[in-house]
Amino acid sequence: MDSTPPPPEPAPVVGISCCRKVPEAFPFHSVGEKYVTAVTDAAGALPLLIPALGDRLDVDHLLAQLDGVVLTGSPSNIEPHHYDGGPEPEDNRTDPARDATTLPLVRRAVALGVPLLGLCRGAQELNVAFGGTIHQELHRVDGRLDHRSDKSTSPDARYEPRHHVRLTPGGVLSRLLGRATVETNSLHGQGIDRVADALVVEAVAEDGTVEAVRVAAARRFALAVQWHPEFRPLTNRSSTLLFRAFAEAARERARERRAPHVA
Which of 42, 96, 151, 262 could, after both became Cys, cross-link 233 (CB 3.0–4.6 A)? Predict the structure, then answer.
């Protein structure tokens, strides 16, 4: 009898959304390293960067190679014409190429059962992709806190916990984290306004700001948070648990994708 242990299961492949930036004469497709290392270290997955190429990408072909997708945060905001948002603030930073890539990608990933984890801008993309709207200047909305980070402080200080978030009782996120509230960082100027009909609210900040949503009818993990759990995810238990849950869904998708198909 062969007692050789089976080979280790290959790591799932997780796509990470990039931004398109033009720092000088030529454009770059880039993503913060913290997102990449969170995928490798906290999710145990193989990262694959998704360039912001819009309709030059065959989304279905891309997703056929992936076991999960992470939608990253960004200094840029979704262009308001995607959600009938009206005039945009004067200093609004946008990334049309990213919008053209991620919004169709979100819809197809959910339709094809590819696990999806949205972070900060990624939560707003999930909402807009399914027909929701965005507060373009959240700090100007009556009763809301200023959720923006203090750019005069050190990078580490900007990611310190800022406020408590109440998790929806009995919700998916509450069950995953095993608690009713979490303390989160806060580095966003925009936020979800009207929640898309296809989404369910999973967490709300003290001032009523929607902090987490999921796709109600998704076959697999399709959840997004407004904060940044990718910052040192292995030192924060809630962040670790969130990435583990996403990773388990990605591994399930990987096993299904690599299983031999019998005619």
Answer: 42
Residue found by looking up tokens 């033009």 in the block: 22
Residue 1: band (very low, low, confident or very high) from pLDDT cuts 50, 70, 90: low
Active site residue 230: yes
Count of Cβ atoms closer than 10 Å to residue 106 Cβ: 26
- Read off the amino acid at residue 100: A
User: Quick one: 72 exposed, middle or buried, by C-beta within 10 A (0-12, 13-18, 19+)?
Assistant: buried
Instruction: Report the predicted TM-score, pTM, of the whole model to 2 decimal places.
Output: 0.95
Of the candidates 254, 243, 259, the one whose C-alpha atom is nearest the C-alpha of residue 43 is: 243
**Residue 90 known to be catalytic:** no
Q: Which of 19, 120, 147, 188 is catalytic?
A: 120
At 24 the pLDDT is: 84
For 206, residues 6+ apart whose C-beta sits below 8 A from its C-beta are 145, 163, 164, 165, 166
What is the per-residue pLDDT for 25?
86
